TrEMBL record:
It comes from Streptomyces longwoodensis. SUPFAM superfamilies: Pseudouridine synthase (SSF55120), PUA domain-like (SSF88697). This is tRNA pseudouridine synthase B. Residues 188-230 form the tRNA pseudouridylate synthase B C-terminal domain. Keywords: Isomerase, tRNA processing. One of its GO terms (biological process) is mRNA pseudouridine synthesis. Responsible for synthesis of pseudouridine from uracil-55 in the psi GC loop of transfer RNAs.
Length: 301
């Protein structure tokens, strides 16, 4: 059992178990790390497993920026059944024989859902509609629409197609897929939309997130493993892995930590968040180029 008395600054990469909400994992980590200052970089549905990035202490300042990074998933889409939640946890609302769907038709449907697309999030999601969570409106039986929003599907690959018969006797197809996508993409919605395009309906039966930005399953630990040994990626190492790095001299480091907006080299224009390090390798701040100067996004020094 870890006997640490003060929580370290850094990221904890958790391999989230099925059945846990992201909030459940945060609550568990607060007990393990013995601090209230724990947050997560983007939610993962209770049914899903895999990479959930948590920030501890000062690293919580990075989470909003880490949440915007690219994500990668491995999942199973079932064609032939539509559910209320677009995944296996929801009630089945429609059925159709999917046994005659061809691989060519599947590939054509996948192509339509690749690249830059407009996606309507699942109704049972955390999206806010006029200040109220979508899932709350759905549970109360409201009739409402969620506006489509732009997402990017960099890769949507079918690795296997399996014939199966559902418990209700419906001939279905189970597709083993991998997806690389932008932040805000709903894999459940991809399953729903692929099934709708093929005329069979579809939903997600399994999902595992294998990567968030630079952090993959190889760096992830289960909650049981973390209970035994709290493995924290130091905040400087985490920032260097996730963001463009800018090393400054001692004078610039001092000016930056005193609130002066430094001139930024042209090479960082349009680079997004940039991690600033002093000559000793200490992570000072996360900044962004704005009109040639460094606008602070998060100061850690």
């Amino acid at each position: 059992m870890n006997r640490r008395t003060t929580a370290p600054d850094g990221l904890v990469i958790v391999d989230k178990p099925s059945g846990f909400t992201s909030h459940d994992v945060v609550a568990k980590m607060r007990g393990i790390a013995r601090t209230r200052r724990v947050g997560h970089a983007g939610t993962l549905d209770p049914m899903a497993t895999g990479v959930l990035v948590l920030g501890v202490e000062r690293a919580t300042k990075l989470l909003g920026h880490l949440a915007l990074t690219e994500k990668e998933y491995l999942g199973t889409i079932r064609l032939g059944q539509t559910t209320l939640t677009d995944d296996a946890e929801g009630e089945i609302t429609a059925r159709a024989d999917a046994s005659r769907v061809t691989r060519d038709a599947i590939d054509a449907g996948i192509a339509k859902l690749s690249g830059a697309i407009m996606q309507v999030p699942s109704k049972v999601s955390a999206i806010k509609i006029d200040g109220v969570r979508s899932y709350k409106r759905a549970r109360e039986g409201e009739d409402f629409e969620i506006p489509a929003r732009p997402v990017t599907i960099s890769s949507f690959t079918v690795h296997d197609v399996r014939d199966a018969v559902a418990e209700d006797g419906t001939p279905v197809l189970d597709l083993v897929v991998s997806v690389v996508c932008s932040s805000g993409t709903y894999i459940r919605a991809l399953a729903r939309d692929l099934g709708a395009d093929l005329g069979t309906g579809g939903h997600l039966t399994a999902l595992r997130r294998t990567r968030v930005g630079p952090y993959g399953l190889d760096a992830a630990r289960t909650l049981d493993q973390l209970q035994e040994e709290l493995t924290v990626m130091p905040v400087a190492e985490a920032a260097a892995a996730a963001f463009t790095r800018w090393d400054v001299d001692a004078q610039r480091a001092r000016l930056l930590t005193n609130g002066v907006r430094l001139e930024m080299p042209e090479e960082y224009a349009g680079a997004g968040p940039v991690a600033v390090f002093d000559p000793e390798g200490r992570f000072l701040a996360l900044v962004e180029e704005q009109k040639g100067k460094a606008k602070s996004l998060a100061v850690l020094a």
